[in-house]
Design a protein that fits this description.
The protein has about 130 residues and is an all-alpha fold. The chain has five helices and no strands. The chain starts with 20 loop residues before the first helix and ends in a 25-residue tail after the last helix.
């Protein structure tokens, strides 16, 4: 994936150019949890990915806290379709406070984004589908 310059989920962070300090705690937690739940192979797999990504650390692509989250969810048998909502819930306080700050300062902060999804399509009424 990385050879094609594609992003690798769980690597890189807007603020941390070195390893995300929160990831250290998650790494140890995943190791212990995997052992306790009889699935230490998950930790080994993750560490293999970390090793494979080491050449890219000089570009700021280091493991972040979210890298270990998926395995924790997996080990607790949380359905995969709940991973993103759980991920988002943890960010809600930050998003809310950003909105409050914008409102108090009477400013609107717009992120710089470029849409790269599919082209717009004409709406087809339900009865015609």
């Amino acid at each position: 994936k990385r050879a094609a310059r594609e992003a690798v989920t769980g690597f890189g962070h807007r603020v941390y150019r070195a390893e995300d300090p929160r990831a250290r705690h998650m790494r140890e937690g995943v190791r212990k949890l995997g052992e306790e739940m009889g699935a230490p192979v998950w930790y080994e797999i993750l560490q293999g990915v970390v090793e494979a990504m080491k050449p890219y650390s000089r570009h700021g692509l280091n493991v972040n806290v979210d890298f270990y989250s998926g395995v924790i969810y997996q080990l607790h048998n949380i359905p995969m379709d709940l991973y993103v909502p759980i991920f988002a819930i943890g960010r809600m306080p930050g998003w809310v406070i950003q909105c409050i700050e914008q409102q108090r300062g009477n400013i609107l902060i717009r992120p710089l984004t470029l849409y790269n999804g599919p082209e717009l399509r004409d709406y087809v009424d339900m009865s015609d589908r």
